[in-house]
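Hi Q.,

Before the meeting this afternoon, I wanted you to have the adenosine-3',5'-cyclic-monophosphate prediction in hand. No need to reply - just skim if you have a minute. The sequence and ligand are here:
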Amino acid sequence: MSDIKLLASVPIFSELTSLELEELSFRMSKQRYKKNNMILMEDEFGDTFFIISKGIVKITRISEEGREVILAMLGEGDFFGEMSLLDGETRSANAIAFDDAEVLILKRHDFIDLLQKYPKIAISLLAEMASRIRKSDHQIESLSLSDAEHRIGMTLMRLAKDLGTIHHGVVEITKMPYQKDLASMAGTSRETVSRMLKLLEKKGMIKRQAHTLSIQDFTLFKRTFS
Ligand code: CMP
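Predicted structure with the ligand bound:
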């Protein structure tokens, strides 16, 4: 996909004309990261805004005990790095290439300029940030649950919304994270994840094949786990 086509498919840029997208693409640089490479680090000062053009990026924090907590998995067309540019604080989390990834990078000055020039982009950015707070609220709620099935169910729902594609009510998540990553999202152990996935499979709610997980009836799944 060309950079212009990719930018046009980014929800926050959906209002820009092709000329404006072209101007924007001139201001962006491109960078590739190998699987597991760090893109940005928690607590560093940041000067850049990122849009994912290929691959998946995981957003993490490290707990006091040194455990990785996954806050989000972001896919193609998603952005990150906006928070420290907006509030002037250090990076709030780590961003790590979950598989080989490519990002488009905008400098702080150009990012702020863009928001000032196109208030519609600022409003779309706020809408996406509101949606991320909602997802985080769900994650906090799920972490407080003692019922492991519910925790894993809510984590799968989050992944379905972030990375899944829906077809006739069935959501498919290709490139499923490993069970240890699911455990880092759900605040539980890998063994519990394995047990709960088997249980959900037995109940006919999910199917697994290689790296793909499908949720058979997403409406029912949402009703059960939200
Ligand atoms: P920034 O703080 O500049 O650097 C880390 C980035 O991770 C942050 O900007 C956001 O873009 C992203 N981020 C932090 N917390 C979350 C979250 N809960 N969900 C999605 N993205 C997040």
